[in-house]
Amino acid sequence: MKSLGNVRRSYAPWEDPEAKPYIRFDKITKRFGDFIAIQDLSLDVYEREFFSLLGPSGCGKTTLLRMLAGFEEPTSGEIYLDGQPLKGVPPYKRPVNMMFQSYALFPHMSVEANVAFGLRQEGMARADIKERVEQMLKLVKLERFAKRKPHQLSGGQRQRVALARSVAKRPKLLLLDEPLGALDKKLREETQFELMDLQQELGLTFIIVTHDQDEAMTMSDRIAVMDAGVVSQIGTPAEVYEAPNSRYVADFIGSVNLFEGTVAGTANGTVRLAGPDGFDIEVADDRDFATGSQVALAIRPEKITLSRHRPESGNAASGEAWEIAYMGDVTNYIVKLDGGKMVRASTLNRQRSVDNPIGYDEQIWISFAPDGGSLLDE
Amino acid sequence: MGNAFRRITIFIPYFWLLVFFLLPFLIVFRISLSILEYGSPPYVPQFDLSAGWSGFWDNLRLLNFENYQFLATDALYRNAYISSLTIAFFSTLMTLAIGFPLAYGMARASEGLRPILLMLVILPFWTSFLIRVYAWIGILKPEGLLNQLLLWLGVIDAPLTILNTNTAVYIGIVYSYLPFMVLPIYATLEKLDYALIEAAQDLGCTALAAFWKVTLRLSVPGIAAGCLLVFIPAVGEFVIPDLLGGSRTLMIGKVLWTEFFNNGDWTISSALAMVLLTVLVVPIVLFQNAQAKATERQK
């Protein structure tokens, strides 16, 4: 893996070979009839980690979560929780709670009774239940709504009741299935930070399933990008964004430009690519690629510089602005290279008034640094 | 214009109820207060429009509650009511015991299978009710299919007497009214979000406890509707006890039929019908209250 420089980390047990994982998926395969939902998947999650399973619908992420909760059993392989195999342990005996995508609030019970449900089931003393419920409702700022029924609440409030209910039993592991999926954008962003605070405050391990890459990037310690039942890449948000290991991951997280090319030679930590797009590319990469092998350079739009004059450095190509989208903080361009390839570039608008922005009908140059992107052979 | 249209559309159902429900009801009620008289129609007083208002009031004074008093004094009627209610009550319980698992199984079947199962439940309605009850005679009679099967299996040595007993009446009612129990329960169970049951299990319930606290609790409106749909017509059932029941099977529907057609006593049979109606209004009101609460909850 390519080094990402000096990224300061306060929490990274996955880098410690001595650290014991809290959850271990060991060669899990899950079949539904002929359909293989999960294929030979191994994955470790550590205590107090905020872990995201990210992927398109049908990639098996929810199945993975449901196997942890005990609603599905793996066809083969074993799941360990704190070193203990989970096979055959029914859902009600697992020290795991789940927040459901539909929230699954009991419609016939008040907010209070919903939150208290798990505690009553546990046989907790009445006074303790009352105290815990009050505490939980305070945590999600719903004290005033204790007597309401779920149908009398807004979507955001229901989401918070579901959250309070799922953490009321103080599980060590909380599973969240698309927890913010039903909320509008603004509420979703607010709730992301609330979830992170809650996780810190209670010291829980969170495993969250989402198809929203922004959500996963914002909240997670690590992300597992999944594709058709297998994990494509596991890493911190920065790792999966800056150093994707495959075209799939590069494309799934954020937007990306892929330059397909043939390796022309490697020397001194530099790989030279002969591209079909009419210009040669030099990439800083100390791996040894066979000359003539097909690889792709994945480079993010913000790593591409636009200029009116031919830049000094290599890795440059000329073209014209095809689309310009002014977003306020950034301007996104689609540049049509002379060879016909479309390239996405985005520039940060650092000055308030952009006196002389690059417009249409101009001959412009794109360029990027040798360490701006990453080489993918998958 | 729009307002007038709205008034008319509201008026039509009220008019319908008035003419075809309230008016006949009042006529029956009036007959129940009249005095038996051999003639056509067989009761007095007759209202004579030519006598004008004073004649109307004179006639009205003749109405009295004698028929009801007679119902109270004769044990036959009391027993018939009690027996009808008992048979209807236990048939409803049995229908529920069979209908709930059926509905549950249907609701949990795969989505492709559900319409077929639903079709199978509705299918018997395509045959006349009367013919289906007659078919049970063929099954239950001493030399019928059921006895032949049991004899062949060696379960029994001599044919059982099922036909013309209360047992046959129970079988008939449970068979005939099963769809009315299954359909409303299926409707509520089918809407039930399965995630609720998983949530209950996730929060510490065993499968059985989750069923009890969530599935069963949330299907109460369906169960209530099913029970009423079975119980109310079963109380007044006439065809099933008449065809399958024996001479000792006492049900109010049969008594009513006898009074009306055999004895030609319109006044007593009207009074019988009025009392039956009063008895049945109670569970309907209870159900409507529960229903109102349930819709309140779903809003």
From TrEMBL, chain A:
EC number: 7.6.2.11
Keywords on record: ATP-binding, Cell inner membrane, Cell membrane, Membrane, Nucleotide-binding, Translocase, Transport
Keyword Cytoplasm: no
Broad class of enzyme this protein falls into: translocase
GO molecular function, one term: ATP binding
Annotated SMART domains: AAA (SM00382)
Start and end residues of each ABC transporter domain: 23-253
Chemical reaction(s) catalysed: ATP + H2O + polyamine-[polyamine-binding protein]Side 1 = ADP + phosphate + polyamineSide 2 + [polyamine-binding protein]Side 1
Assigned protein family: Belongs to the ABC transporter superfamily. Spermidine/putrescine importer (TC 3.A.1.11.1) family.
NCBIfam families: potA
Subunit relationships: The complex is composed of two ATP-binding proteins (PotA), two transmembrane proteins (PotB and PotC) and a solute-binding protein (PotD).
Described purpose of this protein according to its UniProt entry: Part of the ABC transporter complex PotABCD involved in spermidine/putrescine import. Responsible for energy coupling to the transport system.
Protein name: Spermidine/putrescine import ATP-binding protein PotA
Organism per entry: Pseudohoeflea coraliihabitans
Gene name for this UniProt entry: potA
TrEMBL record, chain B:
Matching InterPro entries: MetI-like (IPR000515)
Keyword annotations from UniProtKB, A to Z: Cell membrane, Membrane, Transmembrane, Transmembrane helix, Transport
Protein name: ABC transporter permease subunit
Keyword match Cell membrane: yes
Localization annotation: Cell membrane
Annotated transmembrane regions: 12-33, 80-104, 116-137, 149-178, 218-240, 266-287
Primary site of residence: membrane
Protein's membrane topology: Multi-pass membrane protein
CDD domains: TM_PBP2
Similarity field: Belongs to the binding-protein-dependent transport system permease family. CysTW subfamily.
Organism (species): Pseudohoeflea coraliihabitans
The ABC transmembrane type-1 domain, residue ranges: 81-287
Top-level taxon in the UniProt lineage: Bacteria
Name of a matching Pfam family: BPD_transp_1
